[in-house]
Amino acid sequence: MIRIFFSRGPLLNAMLSGASGVVGALSALPAAAAETAAPSSAHNPIAIGMFLLFVTSTLFITRWAARKNNSVSDHYAAGGKITAFQNGWAIAGDYMSAASLLGISALVFTSGYDGLIYSIGFLASWPIILFLIAEPLRNLGRYTLADVVSYRLQQRPIRAFAASSSIVIVLLYLVSQMVGAGKLVELLFGFNYTIAVVMVGVLMVVYVFFGGMLATTWIQIIKAALLLAGAAFMAFMVLQRFGFSTNTLFSHAILAHPKHAAIMSPGGLVSDPVSAVSLGLALIFGTAGLPHILMRFFTVGDAKAARKSILYATGIVGIGYALIIIIGFGTIALVATDPQYHTASGAVIGGVNMVAIHLAHAVGGNVFLGFICAVAFSTILAVVAGLTLAGSSAVSHDLYANVIRRGTASDRDEMKVSRITTLVLGVLAILLGIAFERQNIAFIVSLTFSIAASSNFPVLLLSIYWRGLTTRGAVVGGSLGLISAVTLTILSPTVWVRVLGHAHAIYPYEYPALFSMIVAFSGVVFFSVTDTSARGARERALYGNQLIDSELGMAKHG
């Protein structure tokens, strides 16, 4: 019988980091994981060697990219010269995180079918982006989300709002990434936590400061290819043990798991319909509001390439999640049916989040274990590089160039501010990562997706499709969505009870997205409809011009 120690609430929240974060697999990691009989990569020279090889390779890529990083367009969007195929791989690399490999496989291992809710929710976000956002986003914008939402609205207030919301999302995400990075590197390589956080922070600054979007793109592409290759090898080895029959694999998993046939039924992770709907909304619509994901659409040459990027990314991500599901179910069956895997995977019992790591050692020995450890680390660097670039562009392009300087800043000044912001974000990320080392920060990831779904997404969607949107409605409604998402998260059981120690939560549900999105959309509509100013009338009248420009692909600059 497999004993499973699983803290449902924190780990459930943490899995929301699938678009791009490692904290999900680590913030809820039981203390016992560090003391298990797992094969320790801290003393595995192969793991250390592959780790160093990856870092060295990415530094060479950054050096090559730095020679081509000569303008604002190069720095923010790689000059728009990334192909659709390359961008699809880069989007997948930005989206599939270590938590996807470690966290979702762990959820499937512990709960079976219920673990699929995350992979399905993450994947379901891409049709939304493809059909509603990709083409107008590429045609109306240049570098950031704020370029699109400010197209026909008042530049300074709407850019200030969009940039502020994006910076909040980036900082929250960076905190979770840095804590996850420190814990992962500490666990897998034996480095001191603080040293690990500093190392990740320095590398992320180097990538963005010198290489910009081009270096970030290729790091994401390489990471996606490595992650997919590693997952494919593990899935192949698992299926080989069961004659490449999924029916046989699932049958053995049902027999081995203490819940037996119940692992093939839904309903064990999300206990009430409100939380289920809120979780689904956060997963599906949060992705469409993440600034580092939306920036990727400006790296291709036209709207057609943007759409093709999504198709490629959806296929790659879908394959990746299918492989991870096989890894999760396969580990259940192998641990119980094969003594070799049972011995090698013994630490799974104490630390379920390391299912994929232990399976890697079981199927490929120390060499493949080292490879998977290096891949897990590469996912962190890819995500934090994208986040840092999104944060620095929000400050330099939106706040500095268009709010403070009112569109008069030179490219040289904008690049200077972007690089200074990159350094500041790096220092902040390191300091916050160290400060939050011993905090349960699982809620931060769910908060990030909720904010993206409740502030950025409603304003972006309505700015594209609703003639009646005004600056007042966008700023007030988007701000209400952000504030309500933060407030409800603090009052939820995740924070109010588990973090702050109160007996009962004021807001009884795990996730705020259902209510915070309603507040956001209602606020945007109400304050736009009641805006009777002359400026509001002009903004409504400009919607026709925006439609024409969107169809022709004529982005307004400045």
Automatic annotation (TrEMBL):
Where does this chain mainly localize?
membrane
Pfam name, any one: SSF
Q: What is a biological process (GO) this protein takes part in?
A: plasma membrane acetate transport
Q: Which UniProt keywords apply?
A: Cell inner membrane, Cell membrane, Ion transport, Membrane, Signal, Sodium, Sodium transport, Symport, Transmembrane, Transmembrane helix, Transport
- State where the protein is found: Cell inner membrane
Report the family membership. Answer: Belongs to the sodium:solute symporter (SSF) (TC 2.A.21) family.
Concerning PROSITE patterns, the annotation shows: NA_SOLUT_SYMP_1, NA_SOLUT_SYMP_3
- Supply one GO molecular-function term: acetate transmembrane transporter activity
A GO cellular component term found in this entry reads:
plasma membrane
Tell me what this protein is called: Cation/acetate symporter ActP
Instruction: Give the originating organism.
Output: Paraburkholderia bannensis
PANTHER family of this UniProt entry?
Answer: CATION_ACETATE SYMPORTER ACTP, SODIUM/PROLINE SYMPORTER-RELATED
Gene3D superfamilies, sorted: Sodium/glucose cotransporter
